[in-house]
Each structure stands twice: as C-alpha cells, then as structure tokens.
Amino acid sequence: MSTIAKPIVKKQSEEKTIEKDSVFGVSNLNLWYGTDQALYDIHMDIYKNEITAIIGPSGCGKSTFLKTLNRMVEMVPIVKTSGTIKYNDENIFDPKYSVEDLRTRVGMVFQKPNPFPKSIYDNVAYGPRIHGIKNKKDLDTIVEKSLKDAALWDEVKDRLHENAYGLSGGQQQRLCIARCLAIEPDVILMDEPTSALDPISTMKVEELVQNLREKYSIVIVTHNMQQAARISDKTAFFLNGELVEFTETDQLFSNPADKRTEDYITGRFG
Ligand SMILES: Nc1ncnc2c1ncn2[C@@H]1O[C@H](COP(=O)(O)OP(=O)(O)OP(=O)(O)O)[C@@H](O)[C@H]1O
C-alpha cells in the first residue's frame, strides 16, 4: 500500500476534498437489469495512478459497477442506466461517445484467465494488429514491452510461438494482463483477477498490479478483503447496490465510518 499521504475522500454525502485528478467521475448512477435495480445513486471519483478496490458481499453490484465503467454491462440487452460517468471530462453515456474508443482506453482483465487459442506472441499482438499495426519490428517491440510490464517476459521469451494454453493459470493471467497493456490503455478494470489462482500466482499478480499503478489507474473487484487491504489505495464498500463507504483503504479497514462497513470487514455478514 502506498505510504504517500493522500487526500481523504469522505462519505459520498459529505463534501469531498480532492487534490488529485480523477479519471472517472461517477454521478447519480443507477442501473437496472429489466425491472430489477442493481445500482442505486452511485457517486464516486476514481483517481489517476491509484488502485481502487471494490469490496462487498456476493450480489452487491461490484461486477456490475466495474463493467459499467467501460459500458461492457450493456452487452446484457435488458440493462438500463441513468446518471453520468465522466471519463476525462466526457460523459461515456453520451450517444456520440465512441464505445470502441472507451474500451481501447479502458481495458479489462477477467476472473478466469481467457487467452485466445493462439501463440503467446499472437495473444499479445492481437490488439495492436486490430488497431492497424502490421510491421513485424513494431509488433516485436510491443510484445516484448507488454510481456516485460506484465512480469512474464523472462518466463516466456524462449517460447513466444508456443500455444498460450501451455502456460500455467497464473502465467495465463499475466498474459491476459500483457494483452491488455499492449493496446496502451489508461485504466485497467480487473474483476477478481486472482480468484482462480494459487497463492504464489496470486502474490505475483498482486505485485504486478502494484507496479502497474505507476502508469495506469486500476479498479479491482475482489472478494478478498486482505487483498484489498494489501494492494489498494482506496476502497469502496458496496452493499445491496449502494456505495456505503469510499475512502482511503487504511482508514476503511482501521476506522470505518459506517456501521455496515464495520460489520462486513469484521466478518459479521457476507
Ligand atoms: N445478466 C444479468 N441479468 C440479470 N441480473 C443480473 C445480471 N448480472 C447481474 N445481475 C444481478 O445484479 C445484481 C448484482 O450482481 P453483480 O454480479 O454485479 O454482483 P457482485 O457483487 O459482483 O457479485 P459476486 O461477488 O457474486 O460476483 C445481482 O442481484 C445479480 O443477480
């Protein structure tokens, strides 16, 4: 966890003291699956070059919220939203806003590693190729840099043309992170990226996520409160589709402002 003093972001109903730029500004966000409301009036800023953890019991809306940030949630046809999400000062719900651009800038890593049935090299080169990069030297450079940034290069540099399915689960997840980095996103959304991994792979991915904070803004959904406490700068606690508390991670775990947060982090429910 960062030791640098950070501004305290108080509960959503109180005035915020923000000294740093935010990458996302979420206001009055509501979301429905058909007639069932899953998110209620969310207000939240997500800050540049920080790790923001989203915690809360199963079904509280963590993944829904995460997937709203790159509008992937709209792949479910019955989804309706209201409110605004500003990404670098533009409302992503604006009909003129390009969802393709948004998803290029806001990458996503899923719970289960999902490499393509291709070589390690082709997995990483996939996004850049789609964006028109064809030159082999340029692709080689991107692949090497992305694999290095994903802390995987040393383990795979001699087998780049082997199938990605031959990697371990933890290596596959770092490959998926490399694939995401190859399109140079601004923000990385991670939906329980270590829940399918063993403890050693989990530790490697946690270290990697902390290092990525220097270049990227990261939002990570996790069931694991220790993980949130270990790696994040700020933590948001969701319950029944509401954002109960969002503050510095140290503060949320040591001195939560809301009784419901305290009950959750002390294991009284969830
Ligand atoms: N595709 C969907 N269609 C209808 N309802 C959905 C859909 N996806 C999620 N929901 C509902 O939205 C609510 C929030 O679900 P969501 O998956 O966001 O919660 P979560 O906190 O991420 O849960 P978990 O920790 O179990 O993954 C739940 O009531 C869930 O049943």
TrEMBL record:
Q: How does it sit in the membrane?
A: Peripheral membrane protein
Specify the ABC transporter domain's residue ranges.
18-265
Key words, A-Z: ATP-binding, Cell membrane, Membrane, Nucleotide-binding, Phosphate transport, Translocase, Transport
Q: State the Gene Ontology terms under molecular function.
A: ATP binding; ATP hydrolysis activity; phosphate transmembrane transporter activity
Q: What is this protein called?
A: Phosphate transport system ATP-binding protein
The listed locations are: Cell inner membrane
- Annotated organism of origin: Salinibacillus kushneri
Describe the task this protein carries out. Answer: Part of the ABC transporter complex PstSACB involved in phosphate import. Responsible for energy coupling to the transport system.
Q: Which InterPro entries match?
A: AAA+_ATPase, ABC_transporter-like_ATP-bd, ABC_transporter-like_CS, P-loop_NTPase, PstB-like
User: Looking at the UniProt record for this protein, which Gene Ontology cellular component terms does it annotate, in alphabetical order?
Assistant: plasma membrane
In terms of Pfam families, this protein maps to: ABC_tran
One biological process term from GO is: phosphate ion transmembrane transport
